[in-house]
Amino acid sequence: MSLGANIRQKREERKFTQEQLADAIGVSFQAISSWERNEYKPDTENLIKLADTLEVSVSSLVEEKHGRFQTKDALYDWEHMKTYVKTTAKNFKLRDTLKAVDYAVSAHEGQKRKRSDIPYIYHPLNLACHAISMGIIEDDVIAGCLLHDVVEDCDKTLDELPVGEETKEIVRLLTYIKDVSIDREVQNKAYYDAIAENPKAALVKCLDRCNNLTTMSWGLSREKIYRMIRETDCYYPALLKVIKGTPEYNSAAWLLKYQMESMLDIYKRLM
């Protein structure tokens, strides 16, 4: 597909008219029309504005496409993941995890992942399955994966959680409450510094970031993707160092580092 065809396709996917797109980037609708017909090409400045407005990479506009790949919104069915986690919890007598599965499903009921129809519960279940697949069969860690967002996103309190104190501490550390009176970078540093004091919380946070990196291409705007890349580069090496320094998580640290850095490299090249 040509540059013009790519612009038109992305504009229609975002449900912009030519006039609306023209207003957003400060050109005439005739300019948009001429670009889409390949009569003229946008200059570099307007090409960047197009990418930002349409929330895509510049490369996705300029590259010649030879066909479209079939993509998947979700790699696994969340009901199957729930069954897998519950079966593992029963086999290894993980009491907190058994309670946390059903509690998380109920707490996140009706919530969707950003810009999708995927039930939100897919996300915490993915973290739990990721941990189990790496051989981490620890009750408080798996339960922490399942409950890490319920206080922040579901109007729940720590006292309401049907789990022990170690799991509650993981959830407390991972709960990010925005304070507009505090500079974002100052708040972020305090948040990640606190997590780094607890290897289990650091482990769950890195699992969380790995899953968010794999889905941010369809769940986040271009601006937020940039912010997540910068945030990951800034704060996650310290968390990975904490995990690597914990003997029982040494193998997990390598796998998480590899996945995180591979995803970042792909996004950086495409952005």
The level of helicity is: 55-70%
Q: Roughly how many Å apart are the termini?
A: 19 Å
Q: Would you state the CATH class of the largest domain?
A: Mainly Alpha
Describe the main β-sheet briefly. none
- The CATH topology of the largest domain comes to Hypothetical protein af1432
- Arithmetic mean pLDDT: 92
DSSP strand tally: 0
Total number of domains: 2
H/E element sequence? HHHHHHHHHHHHHHH
Bulk shape: elongated
Total number of helical segments? 15
Poorly predicted runs are none
Strand content: under 5%
Query: Structural class, from secondary structure content?
Result: mainly alpha
Which radius of gyration do the C-alpha atoms yield?
21 Å
Tell me the name of the CATH homologous superfamily of the largest domain. Answer: Hypothetical protein af1432
CATH hierarchy: architecture of the largest domain: Orthogonal Bundle
